[in-house]
Write a structure and sequence with these properties.
Blueprint: H1 4-25, E1 26-38, E2 41-46, E3 56-65, E4 71-79, E5 84-86, E6 94-96, E7 99-101, E8 104-106, E9 119-126, E10 129-136, E11 144-152, E12 157-166
């Protein structure tokens, strides 16, 4: 008969095996590019060093399904580095098999996601009374962006991207 500790170890090993299988099934490659305008055209510098405030970085995530079949409900999540802020409108919808997957945004560290405009509740004092108000979250406050792909076919390569500005 298995003891509680042994059951916990077996469950942990099962989750580890599942995570490793998924990691092998979906290849992810995230790279930053410095966006510059040269003679009126955008050029991209891969893996830039020494960025400065005001520089625009484009973050590209390429996902490839290396499994033997389709993967379902795949969340492609891009965190927005704390040293930067999201450039409004730069995360474009992903078109896959006739479906359009709109990016969702988070302002709470990736705990919750939604479509803009995002709202949050704040407590303020009005006329000497503390009240709760709903305010719109600015795109500069976003912490994560994600695209939830219903199905990634075997062998498919997807790319999503967004831009941030260095603070």
């Amino acid at each position: 008969m298995l003891k509680t500790q042994q059951i916990r170890i077996l469950v942990s090993l099962a989750f580890l095996a599942l995570a490793l299988a998924l990691a092998q099934a979906l290849s992810l490659d995230l790279r930053p590019y410095l966006v510059k305008v040269v003679e009126g055209k955008e050029v991209y510098e891969e893996n830039p060093l020494g960025v400065k405030p005001g520089d625009v970085l484009e973050w590209r995530l390429v996902a490839e399904n290396r499994s033997q079949g389709p993967l379902r409900q795949v969340a492609l999540v891009l965190p927005i580095p704390k040293e930067t802020f999201y450039l409004d409108g730069s995360a474009k919808p992903l078109v896959l098999g006739g479906a359009t997957i709109r990016p969702e945004f988070s302002f709470d560290g990736g705990k919750s996601f939604g479509l803009p405009p995002l709202k949050r509740k704040v407590r303020v004092v009005e006329n000497g009374k503390e009240v709760e108000k709903e305010v719109e979250v600015k795109p500069e406050e976003y912490t994560h962006v994600r695209w939830v792909v219903p199905e990634v076919p075997k062998g498919a390569r997807l790319q999503v991207s967004l831009r941030t500005v260095v603070k």
